[in-house]
């Protein structure tokens, strides 16, 4: 009696037909799939950004002007704030690199089974409002905060220390908020560095420190560059930390833009300052792309 064998091509044929129908539908719609995202970006990003750029070159009577930029770069007060903005961004970036690289290296090479917990502790604060994270430092180090209360109860100090409203606390707050971006950028690249390269260098006579500086560190430069660009750009646009922890000791363009919008209501001048920050961010991103492309070509 002949028996009919079950066809193994039935499910595969059905799946192939479904894929063919989906491909046909995608082919019919074409670029229309991206239309909702394009419209959203156009309405809520491109047009407001273009309006802000145009406002920075428009005088109150509607004429084209460069007076806001001349004021920004020739007036001693405003030019000093521009310089201070870049100084704060550079110092914060270097501090995040110094703090973040060892953490990223430990996560990739030595964390082991503790890796998920460390990554969670690193990413967890990003899920909290930056206002709450920054205000937490005020709760700890204010004149009547936990730090001063504990030290006075222990008899270590006679009167509360003035810690908040200082430049140091501004940098502490910035590093606390931005160092996860540095760690994640470097860790992503370090994961791709083959450990056998370091082992080969040590077999050939290099010490672990020499292997790190000659092998690991150069191969992780892409992550360092990405992390530095991210921290630099984010520091340029940060004003809450200066506002809550600086006490007027640190003035940057982002804080000045906030003051222009909320106090003086000079929208055109605030737009001009925003354009300067935007231009600096674009330059930083272009430099990063050129650096990565050059390393890719040389490799």
TrEMBL record:
Annotated Pfam families: BPD_transp_1
UniProt topology in membrane: Multi-pass membrane protein
A GO cellular component entry from the record: plasma membrane
Transmembrane segments: 29-50, 86-108, 117-142, 168-190, 224-247, 267-287
Compartment(s): Cell membrane
GO terms under biological process: transmembrane transport
ABC transmembrane type-1 domain: residues covered: 82-288
Family to which this protein belongs: Belongs to the binding-protein-dependent transport system permease family. CysTW subfamily.
Protein name: ABC transporter permease
Species annotation: Bordetella genomosp. 10
């Amino acid at each position: 009696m002949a028996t009919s064998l079950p066809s193994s091509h039935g499910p595969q044929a059905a799946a192939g037909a479904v894929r063919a129908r989906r491909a046909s539908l995608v082919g019919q719609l074409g670029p229309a799939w991206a239309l909702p995202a394009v419209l959203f970006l156009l309405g809520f990003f491109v047009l407001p950004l273009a309006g802000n750029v145009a406002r920075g070159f428009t005088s109150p009577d509607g004429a084209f002007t460069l007076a806001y930029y001349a004021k920004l770069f020739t007036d001693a007060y405003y030019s000093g704030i521009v310089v201070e903005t870049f100084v704060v961004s550079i110092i914060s970036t270097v501090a995040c690199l110094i703090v973040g690289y060892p953490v990223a290296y430990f996560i990739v090479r030595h964390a082991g089974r503790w890796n998920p917990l460390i990554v969670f502790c690193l990413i967890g604060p990003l899920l909290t409002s930056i206002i709450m994270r920054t205000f937490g430092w005020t709760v700890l180090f204010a004149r009547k905060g936990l730090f001063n209360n504990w030290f006075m109860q222990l008899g270590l100090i006679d009167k509360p220390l003035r810690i908040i409203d200082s430049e140091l606390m501004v940098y502490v707050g910035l590093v606390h908020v931005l160092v996860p971006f540095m760690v994640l950028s470097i860790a992503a690249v370090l994961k791709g560095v083959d450990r056998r390269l370091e082992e080969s260098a040590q077999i050939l006579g290099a010490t672990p420190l020499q292997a790190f500086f000659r092998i690991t560190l150069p191969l992780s430069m892409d992550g360092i560059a990405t992390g530095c660009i991210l921290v630099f750009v984010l520091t340029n646009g940060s004003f809450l930390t200066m506002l809550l922890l600086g006490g007027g000791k640190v003035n940057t363009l982002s804080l000045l833009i906030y003051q222009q919008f909320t106090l003086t209501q000079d929208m055109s001048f605030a737009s001009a300052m925003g354009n300067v920050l935007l231009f600096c961010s674009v330059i930083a991103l272009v430099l990063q792309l050129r650096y990565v492309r050059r390393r890719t070509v040389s490799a």
